Amino acid sequence: MLRYIRYIGAQAWQGFWRNPVMSIASTATVAGMLLLSSFFVIAQRGLDVSLNFLQSKVELYLELDDNAKPSDILALKTRIESDPSVDHVLYVSKDEALTRLKEVADKTGQVSLADVATNPLPASLEVKMRDAQQTKQLASMMRDEVGKGVVTDVVDNPSVVDKVLTITRVLSIGGISVLGLMLFVTLFVIVNTIRIAVHARRDEIEIMQLVGATDSFVRWPFIIEGVLVGIFGASIALLVLAASAPPVMGAISGFLTIVPIDFGPLFALALAGSVLGFALVIGAIGAVISVRSYLR
Amino acid sequence: MLRYIRYIGAQAWQGFWRNPVMSIASTATVAGMLLLSSFFVIAQRGLDVSLNFLQSKVELYLELDDNAKPSDILALKTRIESDPSVDHVLYVSKDEALTRLKEVADKTGQVSLADVATNPLPASLEVKMRDAQQTKQLASMMRDEVGKGVVTDVVDNPSVVDKVLTITRVLSIGGISVLGLMLFVTLFVIVNTIRIAVHARRDEIEIMQLVGATDSFVRWPFIIEGVLVGIFGASIALLVLAASAPPVMGAISGFLTIVPIDFGPLFALALAGSVLGFALVIGAIGAVISVRSYLR
Amino acid sequence: MSTLTARNKASRGSDRRNVIVLEDVSKQYPNGTRALQDVSLAIPDGDFVFLVGASGAGKSTIIRLLTRAEAPTAGRIEVDGEDVGRLTRSHVPHLRRKLGVVFQDFKLLPAKTVYENVAFALQVTGHPDDEVRERTDVALELVGLSKRRDHYPDQLSGGEQQRTAIARALVGKPPIVVADEPTGNLDPVTSWEIIQLLSRINELGTTLVMATHNQEIVNAMRKRVVALEHGSIVRDQAQGGYQHA
Amino acid sequence: MSTLTARNKASRGSDRRNVIVLEDVSKQYPNGTRALQDVSLAIPDGDFVFLVGASGAGKSTIIRLLTRAEAPTAGRIEVDGEDVGRLTRSHVPHLRRKLGVVFQDFKLLPAKTVYENVAFALQVTGHPDDEVRERTDVALELVGLSKRRDHYPDQLSGGEQQRTAIARALVGKPPIVVADEPTGNLDPVTSWEIIQLLSRINELGTTLVMATHNQEIVNAMRKRVVALEHGSIVRDQAQGGYQHA
Ligand SMILES: Nc1ncnc2c1ncn2[C@@H]1O[C@H](COP(=O)(O)OP(=O)(O)OP(=O)(O)O)[C@@H](O)[C@H]1O
Ligand SMILES: Nc1ncnc2c1ncn2[C@@H]1O[C@H](COP(=O)(O)OP(=O)(O)OP(=O)(O)O)[C@@H](O)[C@H]1O
Ligand SMILES: [Mg+2]
Ligand SMILES: [Mg+2]
Fold first, then answer.
1. Where are the domains of chain B?
2. Which residues of A262-274 are buried (b: 16+ CB within 10 A; e: fewer)?
């Protein structure tokens, strides 16, 4: 058994290196496709993060009656918070509202507001959405509250919110479907490449069989060779990615002062793992499929 | 000469059909990569249109002093319009502003505003940007006007505008670089596939040479065969695209009631033309490169 | 060698069983060519048979049928007691290991050296590494290729390729050796060495079937001769010559 | 045929020019094998030369050098007045069209039929279609393969492949024919037919070089024999036999 495994390993290694043109070309194809896929996974992830950020900007303001009872305001706040589409609700008092306005006015260099005598600003509830898609529904619900003594006005921006949400949805569905097609084509192209390479060696398969080799004796070295192609291809793709990540990230970070694109600490690791695993499995599957046609 | 051309055509056709496994696999790879590229070009185009639409929502409002002289307002309007980053400027009178507000109020079912006695709303200039990236600069320029008797306030939303613009820029740069990589990998993979297929037939090339065939006599049939692979691959890709366009568009158009994604009338034609041309040229180039290694 | 000697003694009895039997075998290739028609042939264990006939007579076709590289269109083929036509896929390799075949076109693995090509026939049956090494070395020595052991097939002369194929067929000590024109690319001296080698192996009990055009060898050996003509057996003579007696 | 006859008459003069000249040619393959050492040989126009020698002596290597499939490590080779070693890449095809070569391993194009393989040798020189058709048919008839014209090489018997290779070498009526073991897969009768065909072509003025192991043919023809041993010429005899006289 051990002898058999050693034999298979040696044969696969030999098969890889003694058909260098085909092995290198296959490996290059695998590397190219994986690089593209990875790049795309990263772009898709970036798109996702950007869109989430865009969505997280969607808020709803409820302007409150100056005379509303604190208990009523609290009850309303609690009620809104229990809605699963809401992330959190912030109470902004009249004073806070004024302070904020002053800060903004100072920053933007507009006329000073420091000398305002009576505070014209209402207190408000700022509702941050968890699921931005539900904003419209919540807003119309809140409008029913207007005039009941607590809420005086509901401020959203239905047309802008709608548009942002639509674009968000289209982009992320588009991104996911292109990614799906991408992975499918990657699989297809890699399997196809291995098939051509194995086809070119069909005579070898026939000869091995004629000399008394069993199917698995012929098949296994090819499978391991496919795995080798996968591993080498994935390694090249990952090396290129790793090498190009710092400059690309540097270039992007120029734009990123405002939008915090953070992939999370494990993203790189998970990506590398999936690329390697994906390549390895496709290599093996490609070999199995390809060899099968010549084992009759 | 004519005989030579006929000979080459016949040889290429024969070469394609008598190595069916390799021809079909190569064609399938070409089709897959082109399909992916096309899909991606379309997605990138969609992204572009969406982002332009998002950008076109960026506006600047200048609230005007109730006592400003019409000639001053007109002068300001003309000045702003001369800025190349501005698309157009709309004057909204106090009355119009009120009418609009009433309409919005009616639609959203808020308290009726029909009985407002004095009009509290200012007249304004609505500036639609052509180049949204310049909004900030224009806004700060306009703020210098505040208090000079015409403009009372400049309403933009610096943080939101900035964020939208940043995201827009990142997404479109990301889209273009992924597209670039995509086209490069497509080229690379197709050339690689043809190289493997030609490598598998290197003995044929050697035999032809030994029998007295000149380089071009060997090369041309392979080139035309590469072109055939390109044409067939492109045709398959375009057929799949054409077949999948209506349902995909149908599914998307659900979202598109608000964002008007319009690719323009010639987009499909231009896409089909480029795909075919690209495939044909790559097929030929791939064959030239591949055959060259065996013509020594 | 001890098992071979034992088999030899047993097989030289009065009624040796037939290790190869063809009964009314016909073969028509998919493109319509009729290569064999109603061929019947029985070869007892330990026999030495020459298969002769003009180019295209059907000699290689018979060999392809024995190894199940092709299936007969009609008729029954038996090798070492097994009905070749009814073998399951998984049993074909075991049939082929009983047959040491020298192919007319050699069928060497292009990405393996001479040594590796010969060793391969032992590796398929799972021999331990040191045994593979030892026996492969002996086989290469026998056909005079020790000096070329690390050449790839395309770095060999025609005769060297042929001898590699012969070494591969013999290295596994199969009970039946089938050689298709094994001296076509060899000079007379080397040819005779190979024939003597095969002859010795046959004396040790191996059944030998050899398709050949080498008139001199057939005439000199005075072994059984089966002559084919247009896919049919026209002569089957115990101690024959190349031409009709 | 008329040009051949004309050439024939002219060439049978007293001092025929040498169409093949090897001067101190050595060949060492990249892996270190010394295949030829200081071989000098001159073959006059219209000659019939047998190249004999044991397996691995270097016969095929000489042929490979003549066609510039390999370049010599040292020495000078001239074919039909041209220095083969100094030919530019673009002139190599023209050299090869002057040489009709029967390769030891046939070198047939696997994706072409028998007919197409033979026709190919005419197509490379740009013959008109109807001439290609006519001459290919004649060549196939000559080697007895008309019935197999639409077979692919892997649908042919060994001897049929060999005859296809012969037909391809002859169809272009080249001034020099080089045949490497052209009868190794042919039965004696067919072998003799082929030899007679080659002999007739030679009588019409074609220079003929034939590497062979076929003792009987060499002895019977009584032509010039060049014998190689370990890469060196050990005998060059005007009307020789296979063995040393
Ligand atoms: N795969 C095939 N498809 C079609 N016809 C074939 C095939 N293989 C062989 N033939 C034909 O079958 C006939 C017998 O072929 P076979 O190889 O058995 O001849 P052979 O006796 O070995 O001849 P040779 O001495 O030339 O090797 C030939 O006429 C050949 O053309
Ligand atoms: N490509 C190569 N690389 C290395 N060595 C080679 C190569 N081709 C041939 N040889 C060696 O050169 C020697 C001469 O080979 P060649 O083919 O000329 O022999 P030959 O006389 O034609 O023999 P045969 O009668 O067996 O065909 C042989 O020993 C062979 O192993
Ligand atoms: Mg045969
Ligand atoms: Mg030779």
1. 2-53+163-295, 59-156
2. eeeeeeeeebbee
For ligand 2, whether the C-beta of C188 sits within 6 Å is no
A210 vs C: CB within 8 A: yes
Quick one: DSSP state of residue C32? S
> Which residue spans of chain D are classified as CATH 3.40.50.300?
6-98+175-237
Provide the ipTM. Answer: 0.88
What count of other Cβ atoms lies within 10 Å of the Cβ of residue C179? Answer: 26
Is the C-beta atom of D160 inside 6 A of ligand 1?
A: yes
Tokens 């090369």 belong to B219
List the single residue in D90, D94, D107 with the smallest CB-CB distance to B210.
Answer: D107
Superfamily of domain C6-98+175-237, CATH level 4: P-loop containing nucleotide triphosphate hydrolases (3.40.50.300)
Token pair of D232, please?
């060196």
Residue D128 with chain B: CB contacts under 8 Å: 3
How far apart, in whole angstroms, are the C-alpha atoms of residue D50 and residue D221?
A: 10
* pLDDT tens-place string over residues A55-104: 666 677 788 888 888 888 888 888 888 888 888 888 888 888 777 766 65
Ligand 1 contact via C32 beta carbon (within 6 Å):
no
Distance from CA of A190 to the nearest CA of C (A): 23
Helix (H, G, I), strand (E, B) or coil at D230: coil
C56 touches ligand 1 (CB under 6 Å): yes
Architecture of the domain made up of B59-156:
2-Layer Sandwich (3.30)
**Residue among D37, D59, D183 whose CB has most ligand 2 atoms within 8 A, to mutate:** D59
Q: Tell me whether B214 touches chain D (CB under 8 Å).
A: yes
Calpha distance A267→A241 (Å, rounded): 13
Calpha distance B151→B61 (Å, rounded): 10
Helix (H) / strand (E) containing C78:
strand C74-79
The pTM of this model reads: 0.86
Measured by CA distance, the residue closest to atom 5 of ligand 2 is C155
Q: Give C137-175 pLDDT, tens digit per residue.
A: 999 999 999 999 999 999 999 999 999 999 999 999 999
